[in-house]
Structures are given as structure tokens and as C-alpha cells.
Amino acid sequence: MRNPLPDALQALDRFHSARPWDHNAHYHRWLLRQLPARFDTALDVGSGSGDLARRLARRARSVRGIDADASLVEQAQRRTAPGAPITFTCGDALVEPACGPFDVITCVAVAHHLPHVEALARFRRLLAPGGTLVIVGVARPASPVDRVLGAVAVPLNVLMAVWKNRGRRVPRPVAMTAPVRPAVMTFAEVVRDARRELPGARLRRRVFWRYTLVWRKEPG
User: What is the pLDDT of residues 155-196, one digit of tens each?
Assistant: First the structure.
């Protein structure tokens, strides 16, 4: 008897190819709720095509976006209105001079591309006293909780794809176009590093194969 699973997986893949949606941008609203209504400076690490940086600029005096992909940086610059208080830079977030400190640092689906402890330590140094760091990350599923969340995410992913593409004859564009590297660290390992480098950080597993981290630096 033929195994129907490969056919079902192929059908699911075709479904999502026709109805893509941005799992990272899905968390932008939540991310913005973690931040003050107004702040002075912000750094968006892995800024991609600039969607989050432009939203941060509605609250900030100045925003800097940095991304290692030159084509995405060029795309972000084209999509940003002249005069917007945003600077996009192509470079390595752990090497490039950042001209901090920053009141806000955001990092969406990028932390697993970086040396983790080194990245957390650099974010800590770049954050101004009283500032807020928000990470939306990707971890390797390893625990029973991870597997349950992954199973729940599959039907929810279908429903979200239908909802976000409702009434559209062409697919909704997806902002994140850079190749995604599979995560190698588990959520438990992420928590371990965060507790050491960012005491008091709040971490949570999320649906759609993401976790979140929020850390507020003590005022100076």
C-alpha cells in the first residue's frame, strides 16, 4: 500500500507556496508592545528589507538597521521614504561599529545565525542603561513541549495562511527573503546562555517555531 504521508506533505508544501506569509513579521506587533511609546535611538539587527526598522522609526529619533545581505540592505533603502530617520548598513552586527548606546535593540530570526554568547554580550554592551532588548529567535526542537507546539503550529499555520492571504489574487509579499539557517541550539540552551549574559531576561516558547526574549537593562 502506498504511504499517503509524502503526498500529503507535498500538497501542504504547494499550499504554502501559493499562500506565503511572514512568520517573523507576525511578531512585530507583539515586539512593539514591549517597547516604550517614545525612545531616542534604536538598533535593528538583521534588518532585512527594513519593515521593522520603519515601524521603530515612528517612535524613535533615529534608527539604525544592520544586515549582512547587501541586496536586502539595498532593498530596505529603496523602500524607505526620503528623510526618514533610518540608516541601513551592510555588515556584521558583531564587528561593525554601532555608535551606541541604544535605547532599544531588536533582533528577529537572526540570533541563531550568530555566535550566541558573543551576540548576547555585545547586545548587553550596546544597550543604554534602562534600555530594552527584544529577540524573536529560532531554536532546535528537542523537548516534548517543543514537539507539542510544533504539532499545534501545523494546522494554525494553514489557518494563518488562509487568513493573511484572504481576498488576494497574488501572494502577499514576504519581507524576509534571506536564506534561513537551521537552528542548532535548543530552547534550554538559549535559556542557559541568557541567564548568564542577561540576568532577569524573560524567555518564552512561541507557536510558529519561535521563542521570545525580553531584557531591560538596569538604569545607570
Answer: 666 665 565 666 555 554 544 444 567 888 999 999 999 999
What are the sequence ranges of the domains in the chain?
27-139+181-216
Retrieve residue 45's grid coordinates. 539587527
pLDDT of 186-215, one tens digit each? Answer: 999 999 999 999 999 999 999 878 999 999
Residue 52 cell numbers, joined: 521593522
CB 209 within 8 A of CB 138: yes
Is CATH 3.40.50.150 what the domain over 27-139+181-216 is classified as, yes or no?
yes
> In sequence order, which ranges of the chain are alpha helices (DSSP H)?
4-18, 28-33, 51-56, 70-79, 116-126, 144-164, 187-197
Q: Is 164 exposed, middle or buried (0-12, 13-18, 19+ CB in 10 A)?
A: middle
Is this structure's pTM higher than 0.90? no
Lowest mean pLDDT among 90-99, 117-126, 203-212: 90-99
